[in-house]
Amino acid sequence: MSNSQKQPNAERNMEEGLPVDWVQPEPAPLVDRSELLRPSLYRAIIAEFVATLLFVYVGLLALMGVDRADGSSSNGGEAGNTVGLLGVAWAFGGAIFIMVYCIAGISGGHVNSAVTFGMFLGRRVTLVRALAYIVAQCLGAICGAGLVKAFQKPSFDRLGGGVNFVHPGYSIGTGLGVEILGTFLLVFTVFAATDPKSNARDSHVPVLAPLPIGFAIFVAHLGLLPITGAGINPARSFGAAVIANSHQGWHEHWIFWVGPLLGAALAAVYHQFVLKTGTFVKL
C-alpha cells in the first residue's frame, strides 16, 4: 500500500479507536525531580552546551566575513570576496543541521531556547530539563561568541559583535513581528519533523529530521538578516549581547526573547491543538 493510501487509513482508524502504526509517547510531567538523579540529564545538558557553542561560533564567524552595507568588506578587502548574506544563512542553517544530527539522540537536539520552550509547552520535556537546557544554551552561546571575539577581534568590534537589533528603516513592531513568525516557522518545523506520525509515513524521516530543521533556519535567516540580523534563538542573541556588551546589543534585546518565545508558543499551540487529532495507540 502506498503512503498516500496508508495515512488516511491510519487517520480513520485512530478516529474510530482502532490500532494505528505509530505510538505517541506519554506527555512529559510538568516537574520531575527524579531527573536530577539521572546521568542522562547531565549528558544532555553538556551536549546542548557544546552544540550551542559550536552553532554560535560558526554562525558569528561567518557573519564577521559578510560585506558591509557601505560596500567595503569586514576584512578590509574588496567587496564580494566574502560569504555575503546568503553564505551567513547557509552557515547558520548548516550548523544547526550538523548539531541536531549529532546530538538528537542525546538531548533531542534543541540548540535553541525557543525550541526548548516550545517543546516544554508541547509536553516533550519537563520543566527541570527545559530550564537546564536554556541555561546551558545561554552559557554555550556566550562561550561561542567569546571565541569569535578572541579570533576575529577587529571584525568583531567593527561589526558590533553580530548582535541582533532592529535595523534602520524598520520599526520595533516590524522587528518583533518577523521574530515571532520566523520562530514559528522553525518550531513548527521541529514539531513536524519529530512527530511520530511522520515516522510512520516514511521510514527515512528519523534520519532526515535535521534537514528540514536546518532549512527552516536557512530560509528564516534569508528573510530576517536585513531586518533584525535573524535572532529566532534567544540564546544566540544573548551570547552575542553579553560579549559585545554594547548599547546596540542591549537596547532592543527584549525583542529577541519576547518574539521567539511567542513564536514558539504559537507553534506549540498550532501543532498540539490544531494538527494533532487524538490519542495514538500502538499497533
UniProtKB/TrEMBL annotation:
<comment type="similarity">
    <text>Belongs to the MIP/aquaporin (TC 1.A.8) family.</text>
</comment>
<keyword id="KW-1133">Transmembrane helix</keyword>
<dbReference type="InterPro" id="IPR034294">
    <property type="entry name" value="Aquaporin_transptr"/>
</dbReference>
<dbReference type="InterPro" id="IPR000425">
    <property type="entry name" value="MIP"/>
</dbReference>
<keyword id="KW-0472">Membrane</keyword>
<dbReference type="Pfam" id="PF00230">
    <property type="entry name" value="MIP"/>
</dbReference>
<dbReference type="InterPro" id="IPR023271">
    <property type="entry name" value="Aquaporin-like"/>
</dbReference>
<feature type="transmembrane region" description="Helical">
    <location>
        <begin position="83"/>
        <end position="106"/>
    </location>
</feature>
<protein>
    <submittedName>
        <fullName>Uncharacterized protein</fullName>
    </submittedName>
</protein>
<feature type="transmembrane region" description="Helical">
    <location>
        <begin position="41"/>
        <end position="63"/>
    </location>
</feature>
<feature type="transmembrane region" description="Helical">
    <location>
        <begin position="168"/>
        <end position="193"/>
    </location>
</feature>
<keyword id="KW-0813">Transport</keyword>
<feature type="transmembrane region" description="Helical">
    <location>
        <begin position="205"/>
        <end position="227"/>
    </location>
</feature>
<feature type="transmembrane region" description="Helical">
    <location>
        <begin position="254"/>
        <end position="275"/>
    </location>
</feature>
<keyword id="KW-0812">Transmembrane</keyword>
<feature type="transmembrane region" description="Helical">
    <location>
        <begin position="127"/>
        <end position="148"/>
    </location>
</feature>
